[in-house]
Design a protein that fits this description.
The structure is a single chain. The protein contains 1 helix and 2 strands; from the N terminus they run ββα. It is an alpha+beta fold. The chain has a domain of 32 residues. The chain has a two-stranded antiparallel ribbon with strand order 1-2. The radius of gyration is 13 Å and the shape is globular. The protein starts with 22 loop residues before the first strand and ends with a helix.
Length: 60
């Protein structure tokens, strides 16, 4: 098994990156994210994305 795909979900849909403001708010901390405000769905800032990934990574 390759290490690259071991703890990642590469097929999961990702929101498009924003070219500039306005940015969507993080659903956890309300800080601006790197995603466009027009994106409908769950968006998290890089800090919350990292923390969520650590909480759920390879736990089992």
């Amino acid at each position: 098994m390759s290490d690259e795909g071991y703890c990642t979900i590469s097929e999961a849909p990702q929101p498009p990156k924003a070219d500039g403001p306005p940015y969507a708010e993080c659903v956890l901390c309300r800080e601006p994210t790197e995603y466009p405000e027009s994106y409908k769905g769950i968006t998290m800032c890089p800090k919350c994305e990292w923390q969520e990934a650590q909480r759920s990574a390879c736990s089992g």
